[in-house]
Amino acid sequence: MANRRSRVGRLTGMAKLGANVASQVAFSRARSIFASAERKDELNRDAEIRSAKEVAERLGSMRGVMAKLGQMASYVEFGLSDGASGSLESLWDSMPPMSRDLVDEVIVGELGAKPEDIFEIWDPEPIAAASIGQVHRAMTKDKRAVAVKVQYPGIRETVGADLANVKMLSKMMALAFPNMNTDSIAEEIRKRLSEELDYRLEARNQSFFYDFYRDHPFIIIPAVIPEFSTELVLVSELATGVRFQELLDQDQEQRTMAAETIFRFVFRSLYRLLAFNGDPHPGNYLFQGDGRVVFLDFGLVKRFTHGEMDVFERMIKAMVLDQDPRAFRHAIIEAGLISEGSPISDDQIREHFESFYATVMQDAPFTMTREYSQQLIKHTFDTSSPVAKYIDVPDAFVIIQRINLGLYALMSKLGARRNWRKIAEEIWPFMLGEPSTELGELEAEWLRADKGF
Fold first, then answer.
1. Would you list the domain boundaries of the chain?
2. What is the pLDDT of residues 91-142, one digit of tens each?
3. How far apart are CA 271 and CA 429, in angstroms?
């Protein structure tokens, strides 16, 4: 027992030390963080984008929606070769950057002055460049180290053109899934992706998560700096940590602790905040060790109603806890996943949906493997299933499929092994089980101290 307490004590100390670096350190520490802007691998300036027109003409096929699809293809087990998926990894955070003049143009238009005049220190080299914007390091006049995300000018038109083609995707899906309201699915995707273009909305989303997870021992949300944040510019505390590829080089326990943190964040947010941060791809995290993870992107957030969450909970109870196929059938009928008169048996329904609950079906350790992820992707799009042609996908289930398509693929890359059932029972509001891991003990202590749970 003493050893267990000492381990938890060490974790608590390290967690407090690592949390919210940019906001908690002195000016000298902030300067040292900023000094890391001398990048190891500087982005190629020859490839920079010099005008809004170039965004559409030269990179229209790489930015926006197409970049999102490329990001997913780089880590979701669609059956691509390692070389093919690896070649797409630059879409995580290393797309060709904007020219300095173009960045200045956006910031002047949004904040009224050049970045060198607004900030005490400004690094013109981006530290990340992805599908909708790029990120720079800076230091405010009051000595706060910050990350400045600048949206590509003209990206709205590029994304708008992509989203106009979502209707074509809808028609293709309808051929494979005739019972599915594919127009509704396409509209839900369009709405969510369109929201990513408004950094003011993203700032509100990020602040919403930050307020809840403030002082959490291992989930770190950078605070938004509202006075510098606009529709096209988003400024947050500067966070530190290694990228996903560097995490893959660490030992298995470090990878598993990081995966557990992401799992806890996703499902704690879903069941406690009724919100899902719907873009779980490797470029959206920084890893600080011993389970501490920084969550970076809040552009695609889906909010749920209490009624929708009640249905999710009934589905879990029927499938996982009670293992009652009849009750599960009633739950998914209420959810709108199948219609009342669908000519399929309760057992066929159970067999079809059981794969999505595999991680928590048994009270035992479960290893997230590449084979599991591949099987789950294949099953999701399997049109040969006797159940598939009777399935519809209501709005509440569209974006949350990123759990099956994205989250589990990410955790499979990490080879994470835990008793996910026990961890889920800690989080499910109808269970609220005792802590089952060291991170669980830290989180339980935080919940008691900060939330009164």
1. 22-240
2. 444 566 788 999 999 999 999 999 999 999 999 999 887 678 899 999 999 9
3. 7
